[in-house]
Write a structure and sequence with these properties.
The chain has about 450 residues and is an alpha/beta fold. It contains 17 helices and 19 strands. The protein folds into three domains: about 80 residues, MurE/MurF, N-terminal domain (Udp-n-acetylmuramoylalanyl-d-glutamate--2,6- Diaminopimelate Ligase, Chain: A, domain 1, 3-Layer(aba) Sandwich); about 220 residues, Mur-like, catalytic domain (UDP-N-acetylmuramoyl-L-alanine:D-glutamate ligase, 3-Layer(aba) Sandwich); about 130 residues, Protein-Tyrosine Phosphatase, Chain A (Alpha-Beta Complex). The strands form three sheets. It has a nine-stranded mixed β-sheet with strand order 6-7-5-8-9-10-11-12-13, with helices on both faces.
Length: about 450
């Protein structure tokens, strides 16, 4: 296997010292997933990664990046010593970006980032080796990790960039230095930290500050914030702007989208006037919007979007992001739609809309609190009530979702509980054969606990 990083390249990239001459074939920040040939980076988060260096090396990691001596190691342990490990990982990511000729697309947005990234992975793979993060690695460690893992010979790379607070996107975009920067949509995610939708638009639009000279911005033409996003891209020196969406002025226009009888999403998209048909096994009209954005990025990279589009037949949501599965219930089976990974108001609305379109005996929504909404939280949770009421039965957990629950018609109220663990047995007891059950909430609402309770007898 061709080394991802040689010892000499590690030293040059990080300015660190490494006595061993071992080369690495991967980069890991979790000792549990570290494997033979990996560079293990000892980051600090809830726990100090230095405490797990011995474990990572024991699992076969070739080198560990550290900024102080970890416990329990031999004197000759293969340590790449740097001033600070996050800075070292960031330097390695910058070096990974600098050494490649890959065409880079960077993606941000309030919702749809990961889905659009995965669509682009499929679309671009038909034109050459394509690199993208294996998960939603879109923050201050995720972006440099994705870049550090990028093989030098990649033809394309897709870098997902997210944020929780103001000022986080632009530095990561400058690290990625994309040829194309795209914003999927502007919505209320993290609105509690940004003060309003205008602040979110400013932050998301700052992705264009990382564009290479003459780079292209791909922007949501349907958004009320498109004019400001356009201004930000122009101020950043974008050489070209491509709008996407249903708006007649969009260069990449979503002409039609529908759910087919076999549970697929079909979309017709005009890419600079050329009609392209897309069919995806993923159910939900929001997937059509993401496909429109993804095809706009393909076109922005100078590639044939019509040729690429059939690859989307292989797109399906990942774990916790809408992947359906059958589960055992008393007397038969129900269909679980697992969206337990995260939830922002626009994504919650889209999930409830999709639930309403799924065929089933009953459509059941199981909802946990959304997070990071600040002073807007009460209104945003209550505002979901009309969409939730389209379900046949609604279960909720958490103090914020109690507001929504109280607004539902009595016949629609399943149960409310303090948390997902308390709600799980109530949902499980209520399910019948033929039901379709959506589970969605913020990661901090721990809706995955409820998903595990519903699936433990189905594994």
């Amino acid at each position: 296997m061709t080394p991802l990083w040689t010892a000499a390249a590690l030293r040059a990239a990080t300015g660190g010292s490494l006595a061993a001459e071992a080369a690495v074939t991967g980069v890991s920040i979790d000792s549990r997933s570290a494997g033979p040939g990996d560079l293990f980076v000892a980051l600090r988060d809830a726990r100090d990664g230095h405490d797990f260096v011995a474990d990572a090396l024991g699992r076969g990691a070739a080198v560990a990046m550290v900024d102080h001596d970890p416990p329990g190691l031999a004197a000759d342990a293969p340590l790449l010593r740097v001033g600070e490990t996050l800075a070292g990982l960031t330097a390695l990511g910058a070096a990974g970006r600098a050494r490649t000729d890959a065409r880079i697309a960077a993606i941000t947005g309030s919702v749809g980032k990961t889905g659009t990234k995965e669509m682009l992975r499929l679309l671009l793979a038909g034109f050459g080796p394509t690199h993208a993060a294996v998960a939603s690695y879109n923050n201050h460690w995720g972006v440099p990790l994705t870049l550090a893992r990028m093989p030098a010979g990649s033809a394309f790379a897709v870098i997902e960039i997210g944020m929780n607070n103001p000022g986080e996107i632009a530095p990561l975009a400058r690290l990625a230095r994309p040829h194309v920067a795209a914003v999927t949509t502007i919505g209320e995610a993290h609105i509690g930290h940004l003060g309003g939708l205008e602040g979110i638009a400013e932050e998301k639009g700052s992705i264009t500050r990382g564009l290479l000279p003459g780079g292209i911005a791909v922007l949501p033409r349907d958004s009320a914030h498109f004019p400001r996003l356009l201004e930000l891209a122009q101020e950043a020196g974008a050489g070209r702007i491509i709008g996407f969406g249903r708006d007649p002025a969009a260069e990449v226009r979503l002409l039609d989208a529908a759910i087919t009888r076999d549970g697929r999403t079909r979309a017709e998209i005009a890419v600079f006037g050329t009609r392209v048909e897309v069919r995806m096994p993923a159910l939900g009209l929001h997937h059509a919007g993401n496909a429109c954005c993804a095809l706009a990025v393909v076109a922005a990279l100078g590639l044939d979007a019509a040729r690429a589009a059939p690859a989307l037949a292989g797109y399906a949501p990942g774990a916790g992001r809408g992947a359906p599965r059958d589960i055992a219930v008393e007397g038969g089976q129900a269909l679980l739609v697992d969206e337990s990974y995260n939830a922002a108001p626009p994504a919650m609305r889209a999930a409830l809309e999709t639930l309403a379109q799924r065929p089933g005996t009953r459509r059941i929504a199981v909802l946990g609190d959304m997070r990071e909404l600040g002073e807007f939280s009460a209104a945003l949770h209550a505002g979901l009530a009309p969409a939730a009421a389209r379900a046949d039965l609604v279960f909720c957990c958490g103090p914020e979702m109690a507001r929504l629950f109280a607004l539902l018609p009595a016949a629609k109220r399943g149960a409310h509980a303090a948390d997902s663990a308390a709600l799980a047995p109530l949902v499980k007891a209520a399910l019948r054969p033929g039901d379709v059950v959506l589970v969605k909430g913020a990661l901090g609402s721990r809706m995955a606990v409820l998903v595990r309770a519903l699936t433990e007898s189905s594994s």
